[in-house]
Amino acid sequence: MGRSPDRPYLRRPRVRPWLIGHWEMWQLRGSVVVAVVLVCGAAALLVGAQIVPLRATGRDVLLTAALVLLGLVHTEIASKVERMRRRVSESSYYDLSSVWTFAAALLLPPPLAAVVVVALYSHLWVRVWRPAKSRLHRNVYTAAAVVLATQAAHAVVTGSGGAPRWTDGAAGLAVLALAVVVYAVVNNVLVVGVIALQEGSGPEPHGRVRHLLGKVDDIALEIATLSLGALTAVAVVLNAWLVLLVLVPLVVLHRADMARQLEQRAATDGKTGLLNAAAWHDKAERALRRAQRQGAAAGLLILDLDHFKSVNDTYGHLAGDEVLSAVAETLRAEVREGDVVGRFGGEEFTVLLRGLEPTSAGHRQMELIAERIRERIGQLAVAVHTPDGPLTIEGISTSVGAVFDLGRTCTLQQVLGAADAALYAAKRDGRNLVRFGPPAAPTHAFPGRPQA
Length: 452
What we know:
Blueprint: E1 3-4, H1 30-51, H2 58-88, E2 93-94, H3 98-107, H4 110-129, H5 136-160, H6 163-166, H7 169-199, H8 208-213, H9 216-238, H10 247-266, H11 277-294, E3 297-305, H12 308-315, H13 317-334, E4 340-345, E5 348-356, H14 360-378, E6 382-386, E7 389-393, E8 398-404, H15 412-428, E9 434-437
Parallel strand pairs: 8-9
Antiparallel strand pairs: 1-2, 3-5, 3-8, 4-5, 6-7
């Protein structure tokens, strides 16, 4: 599927009036400009080298026109959903046009497959991406990456003996699966690579690979779309009219993905990008019940920024929002994948630490995490803009209430109460401290299981 490098990777403009005026591509980091030019140039040269020996049949030309037409119809049917989906998506953007581009890779000579890609992405630019304020160079780069992906997938098909090979039995399924993997890998490597070049290594490499590749749901959507493209190609070989049936599940897939992204946005705190209170409570409750069933230990942290009201009163609420965002980034960097992090309200954050050892070693691990978070927040230097000019806010501190050994039968509400009491103990003892409270009292034991 076409994956677009849709991140705000522009830095301070560098005006080069002799190079196509003020086109925004020249505002990118130099290594990114080189990558964009190389990928687009490679796609153009590769297709150009195949045009002269091309011997397209009338059926090939007709099939090219049919795939373009179906792709245009698909875009028009789903254009409203796509525009809304692009507005709510905060990760790499996936369009579903690869149903047609992947089918073209399997069925057509590479130059004609490139015609399908260019036609569909030009239409997407006019109908979806330009109204959504996307950048032209991103669309061009994405189209070039897809052209190279179709070339790679077609090479898999050619190497296996062509269409008769991949429509026959288990061997045909293996060829199609390999083509799906090759298409996805080439496309993602090119797009993720240019994002990585722009973002650099960054000060916090934790979770960087996961951040670049996207969520599991996004990857699953990509594989599902390519699989639908493979079925489209098989339908064309067996009975061309069957391809019309693809439009219905494709539109449903659009709407299902839109609903998923809206659900994700509804669960996210707008200022920090963390889970909001309701979503955190729901996810943490499930994690706690799972820990109780498995007899595992977990830990709960409640963090409250000290004297945060003075930040808002002194520098303004926008500056306060920048501080909250910086604290959220610190929390994401210091916890492990699978831990449940959320903004509980105001300047209060909550973290459920999962998979701790139900021993003193697990308690010590939780202490180290809590202290490291407190220290990292204390080291923050948040650059903000104020009416009086730019400045840096430092000296931020937080008080932390912690509870360990939750592999019992207490409810999340009881655990929160115990951690909240520990938080107020930290406030009373002078702030900028971590205080552990006793485990919450369990309500009842599971049948046949001794109470901890």
